[in-house]
Amino acid sequence: MPAYIHKAIVETYIRAALFGELEKDDFDSLVSPWLSEGGQAAFYRQIAQADQTYTDEVEPRYKDIRYPVQILWGEKMSGGSY
After folding, report:
1. Each residue's pLDDT tens digit, 22-39
2. Which of 27, 33, 53, 71: disulfide with 22, CB 3.0–4.6 Å?
């Protein structure tokens, strides 16, 4: 696939997962790893392997994390609050 089409797909995929806008540098830092030849292959591989079962298996273990982390999980709520 031509690089410009792949880039457009990656950018659209990432934008669809965002609640709001990111600074250009921040957005570019999310896109750039997927643009190399290896990154392109990995992008489509991870999509092909996506399975809700894996998320369902690990989600109950989040409560066992004992290190300072921030996990964002949820959906857009009215008024932009979480």
Report:
1. 899 999 999 999 999 999
2. 27
Region of residue 74 (phi > 0: left; psi between -120 and 50: alpha; otherwise: beta): left
Say if residues 14 and 27 touch (Cβ distance below 8 Å): yes
Weakly modelled stretches of the chain, pLDDT under 50: 78-82
Find the length of the chain: 82
Whole-number pLDDT of residue 32: 96
Task: Count CA within 13 A, CB hemisphere, residue 61.
Answer: 5
Report which DSSP code applies to 61. G
Residue partners of 71: CB distance under 8 A and separation at least 6 = 62, 65
Residue 62's contacts (CB-CB under 8 Å, 6 or more residues apart) are 71
Q: Taking the complete model, does pTM exceed 0.90, yes or no? A: no
What the block records as the tokens of 13 is 């995929």
